[in-house]
Amino acid sequence: MFGPTWQPAALVVALKNLLLSGKMASNVEAPERWYLALLGFAEHFRTSSPPKIRLCVHCLQAVFQFKPPQRIEARTHLQLGSVLYHHTKNSELARSHLEKAVRGV
After folding, report:
1. For residues 71 and 81, is the Cβ–Cβ distance under 8 A?
2. Where is the signal peptide (predicted)?
3. pLDDT digits over 34-89, tens only?
4. Confidence (pTM)
């Protein structure tokens, strides 16, 4: 579905189309649906064999495109910081996300 030049904006557009089509569970409120879908994509990419960390990070970054509530934003910063810390050499970016998570709580 996503090629090597895939961008977070493409996932946001695809997700919005999916939400508007009504193909996701109707018992979950709309703000929770996009969040759960993005988390599901991120987890899928993270646990793939081999892991697709770049796509996982793109999914988590796409959460911010929806202007999430503070709790979700803090949680996403925590998840991003954790993934970046464990799977990349960019410790400054990981630290930045972890600090934003602490401030957002």
Report:
1. no
2. 1-25
3. 888 999 999 999 999 999 999 999 999 999 998 888 999 999 999 999 999 999 99
4. 0.72
Give dist(CA 88, CA 70) in Å, integer.
26
Q: What share of the chain is helix, strand, coil (3-state, %, to 5)?
A: 75, 0, 25
Where are the chain's structural domains? 8-104
Handedness of CA 18, 24, 29, 35 (dihedral sign): negative
Half-sphere exposure of 95 (CA within 13 A, CB side): 4
Tokens 């503070």: give the residue.
70
Q: What is the dihedral of CA 85, 37, 63, 15, to 10 degrees?
A: 130
